[in-house]
Every structure is written in structure tokens, then in C-alpha cells.
Amino acid sequence: MASVLDDPTLARHFKGHKDAVTCADFSPNNKQLATGSSDKTLMIWNLNPKSRAFRFVGHQDIVTAVHFSPSGELVASGSRDKTVRLWTPNIKGDSTVFKAHTATVRSVNFSADGQKLVTASDDKSVKVWSVHRQKFIYSLNQHTNWVRCARFSPDGRLVASCSDDRTVRLWDTSTRLCINTFTDYTGPATFVDFNSSGTCIASSGADNTLKIWDMRTNKLIQHYQVHSAAINSFSFHPSGNYLISGSSDSTVKIVDLLEGRLIYTLHGHKGPVLAVVFSREGDLFATGGCDGQVLMWKTNFDALNYREMLSSHRKRVTPDPPPHLTDIFPRSPHVHLAHDSAVQINPVVPNIQSAHPQVVDIGEDPFSLGAGRHTSWITDPSEHPSTSTGRNLDIFTDTHHREEALEEDDLEPRLTDLQEERSVTSPALRSTLEHIVQQLDILTQTVAVLEERLTLTEDKLRECLDNQAVILEQMQQQPDKETRGAEGPAV
């Protein structure tokens, strides 16, 4: 078990974003930190203080999600402009665009082998892509509302997703079927992820709760109520012994999963905390919020050497034999409330609106008419991304009621106009509009089914062609055998 060393300390704050920081991820080699923002940019921060930072310009709207590939050679980002981009995290800044979702992309996540990418969207779908084949593979469609987050399990056999429909779903990637549904939330489920061994999943909600499920028994084993507002993001420590969470109550909480209690409350952000993430080795973690700050902290409270743990317990993250839950107790469901004994840490964080370190702008100008440097893989029915310039933070803050989540200065012009029209229109027109929305939902589901059937048809056709090639080869070999048989007696 890890030994407790010291309280977490603020190691560094990064200056460069001009609006809310919505997402963050460390590179596998622990040398870079990627962050996305409502200022429509993706930034790559080099953790060497003397190195320059890169600002990638290309998305036409809020950047909502970011994730490094396992090799660190690619960074995926999702946006409210309905696209996913794959960036090269260097000064060249080349990007490739995925276009298949018809609404805001909320989440992006690479599989552990880097071969696939899973995305979640407000179009109520979860989509899986082949990274190297540059191809959309299939959709997962059973959610009935916005899908907030989707994550691969460590072995890639499962996908977990959560939605505003108040459910967390577990999918089998081989059969593409939903194999389990957790429905214990009283509000939208905001975030979901697997622990490092794949034995548990955790999910958070707009009802201020954080829940951990045992994957062997599909039962709730831990239930935390330590925040006073919606939880927007969380991250497991690589050891599986700790978990950090960021909330709209402006705090970051750290819970000890072995002891089942809150151990730290961090105050560093002014406003909702939208992103929290541990580094791959667990020695650092980063937080981002509506105040535009990116804070990097030294963990200090866990001396576990994660690399040694992986080498000695490698079998725990392999499909055969199945993993076993040995690092999260107790096994019976119980609730953990906030404790006064938790350490409160309130670092002094200066104003960060100045540009430091030196930032290099890379990519296309979203406001220019010229084409940027990127290629497009697959197009979809959505022609152009939204051109709204308002700050829309509804995707991360106070999501338990969509009306409360969309503040006045955050509303898109189109949505505002629609609400004004509904307030003065007749019930008959309102009914007609609702019917149109229902028909659009049915059309979206039909398109998803057709996509899946097309994929199956392609697989069957490929199988038929392979079988035909085998049959032709056998037919060609048969005459040769008959010829040799006929020549035998003559000799």
C-alpha cells in the first residue's frame, strides 16, 4: 500500500487561455499537458518551464474534450462545432477532421492500443472510429438524451457511457450491444470512467453524487456526497487508491478509496471546476475551470511507484484471467458524506490573463475565409458548424436542469429565438414543432441503424469474396489433380 507523504501543493499555473478551460489531459510521457477552452483553441503546454506552448486554432466553437493517444503521437479533440480533430502535438500542428455527429461532441477517448477512438455527442449517439484506417466503424444508440461521456475499458472490450437520460450504460464492443444499465441517478449523469485495472467504473451526476460500481457483480460499492453542486469531471489515480473530482461548487475534492473518506478539499479556482486529470504516473494532476486558469499540482500524498505496480500486476489488466477487485473496499453499498476532518488547501493563485509562457499560434484562423491545414475523413449531413460566439458553458455546469444550465449570456441566438417564439405561439403550432422534433429523432435513429447494417453488409461481402477466392483456388487445383491421375496409368 502507498504511504502518505504530504499534502498536495500547487506546482504551476499556465497562462494563455482567454476563456473557460473545459478539458485537460497529460501526455503518456508526462512531458506535455493538453487543454481545451471555450476560446475555441487547444493548447499544448510543455511541462519544461523554459519550453514554448502551442496554441492550435481550427475548431469553430468551444473545445469540449481532449485526449492523448497511448503513444503520445496524436491528440484528439471534440468541439461544439460537431467535429472531432486529430492533431499532431508539435509545431507543425497538422490536423485531421472527423465528421459524423450532428450535434456537439462532448467526449473523445482512445482505446488502450490506440487503434480506435470513441466519441459521445448531443445527437444521443456513441460512435467508434478506426484511427489508422481513417474510417467510422459503428454507432451505439440506446440513450434517449445528450450523451455526456464515453470511455473504453483498459482491455478495450467494453465502453461505458453516461447521459442526460439519467443512465450509465455498459456496451460490449464485440457484439455492439448494451449489456448493462445503471439507473440510480436523480439527474443527468455527467461523467464516467474505468479504474486502471478495469475492475470498477465510477460515474458522477448533476445530483452532486459520485458512485463506484463493482464490474464483477454490477453492484454499487461506494457512494460519495462530498460536493455541494454538480460534479463535472473526475479522475482515478493510476494506483486506483485515490480519486479527484471537480465541481461547480468551485472546489476540487480528493477521496481515499481504500479508507472510503474525503481527505482533501482544494480551493484554487474562482468559479466552477470543469476539468481534473491525473498524470499517467500519478505524481501530478491538473485542474481547469470557468476562470480560465490551468493549475498543475504535485500529488505528494501517494508514494506508489506506478511503473513497478504495472510490471508486477500486469495480469490484472489482461482479459484472461478476468481481473479481480482487490483495491477498493468495502464491498457493501454505503454513503460517504463530507467530513470536517478533510484538509482544506487554499493556495494563492495570481491573475493569469497575461500571456506566459511564450505561446506559438498554430493552425487555421477560424475567422478567416482561407482554408486551414487539415484533411477531412468522413462527411455527415451537418453542413456547417454553429457560428454562435456566446459563452456556452452548459455542457459542464449545473446540468441537472437544462434550463438552469443555460444562463442568459450563454444562450445560443437560435435557441433564444425559438424560446421567444414558443412563448407567443399557439398550442397548435407548439404541438407541430414538437412533432417535427420527434420525427427528427426517429430519422436520426434510422440513419444509425442503416449505418450499422451497411457495416454488416460490408463485412458479409468481404467474407463472400474471400470464400469465392478459396473456391476458385480449389477449382483450379482440381483439374491439375485429375491430369496427374490420368497420366499415372499411362506411365
UniProtKB/TrEMBL annotation:
GO biological process: cilium assembly; microtubule-based process; multicellular organismal-level homeostasis
Cross-referenced PROSITE patterns: WD_REPEATS_1, WD_REPEATS_2, WD_REPEATS_REGION
Keywords: Coiled coil, Cytoplasm, Cytoskeleton, Repeat, WD repeat
One GO CC term on file: ciliary basal body
CDD domains: WD40
UniProt cross-references to Pfam families, sorted A to Z: WD40
InterPro entries reported for this sequence: WD40/YVTN_repeat-like_dom_sf (IPR015943), WD40_PAC1 (IPR020472), WD40_repeat_CS (IPR019775), WD40_repeat_dom_sf (IPR036322), WD40_rpt (IPR001680), WDR55/POC1 (IPR050505)
Keyword ATP-binding among record annotations: no
Coiled coil: 433-467
First and last residues of every WD repeat: 14-55, 56-87, 98-139, 140-181, 182-223, 224-265, 266-298
Family from the record: Belongs to the WD repeat POC1 family.
The protein's name: POC1 centriolar protein homolog B
Organism: Tachysurus vachellii (Darkbarbel catfish)
